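::Encoded backbone::
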Amino acid sequence: MSRKAKKVKYEQKTLREKQIDFKRHLRTYLVMSVFFIVLDTISGPGSWAMWPIMGWGIGVAMQALSLYGPLRDPDEAHPTDQEFSGPLPDLRDRPEPLKLRELDARPYRDEDLV
């Protein structure tokens, strides 16, 4: 299967999948920002590291606003709405809990373990 076939379009993903993608993107951004700062410090004076950090940060911020902020699509259901929709189960109709076997009913002897 090709890489393009495995990749699902962003619009077709659920809200939960989009949030997982955002968390991965944010984690990558933070790690690379630290890398840029360390590389800038090692390479000598100059503040070039702020430019890629700020540019990439704009993309991360826009993605965050589209998932959690005012740019969020109001038609997408919140994950808690999806998880808790429907009637609650009646706990009185559940089966009896399983009983543990007695220690004497083991299919082996202690001598067999040594």
